[in-house]
């Protein structure tokens, strides 16, 4: 999902991304799309489509005429095309800040977990607006890294306690845009009307500690990239610090929640 992800960590390995946050993004996507209330039979643009999670939910619940997904990562585009085989879907490589689409050619442009990773998120929102017809919808969601994305918050708090240098990599510190007012300002600045920001909170339940920890060993994304950069002793110390920090229920499950901020507007 996170397109043009150049800030930290290699964005390859669709299956590893799915295990890390893709599975939780799907839960958010369903509620996100329900709130948009786009009529059936419309043409959708998915900017930063990643592994195809959001595009798949559009196909499953919004009865689109067509969905075009665009992502900078060739690996993610290939993963999406392999796993989302509905003939109404098409996936292309491209830059969110210079979309390879015609003006006013879609009814809705959406983006999941992307804007904070872009060098110029305002340019991406302007491009989304350009691709949407007057009266159409432009909308996005991002994780609340600072407070509401508990699986990552626990990770970076533990990592920062052990290694102060890790705090500079913490998405909650790096991405000031992932808060309601900056998101609203971003959409207002693109000239969209009826801009609104809301929250979506979903459960993130792990069967046991290994279910929580294993995705951090995949290397895809900032936190997994940091984990795989550590030597064996430092990685073991981080693992045990997290084990002590997380709320483990009787039976071993770990029940957390993830909050995403949703921002939407309409093309005038």
UniProtKB/TrEMBL annotation:
Keywords: Methyltransferase, Transferase. One of its GO terms (molecular function) is S-adenosylmethionine-dependent methyltransferase activity. One of its GO terms (biological process) is methylation. Transmembrane segments: none annotated. Residues 45-139 form the Methyltransferase type domain. It comes from the Bacteria. InterPro entries: Methyltransf_11, SAM-dependent_MTases_sf. The keyword Transferase applies. This is Methyltransferase domain-containing protein. It comes from Geodermatophilus sabuli.
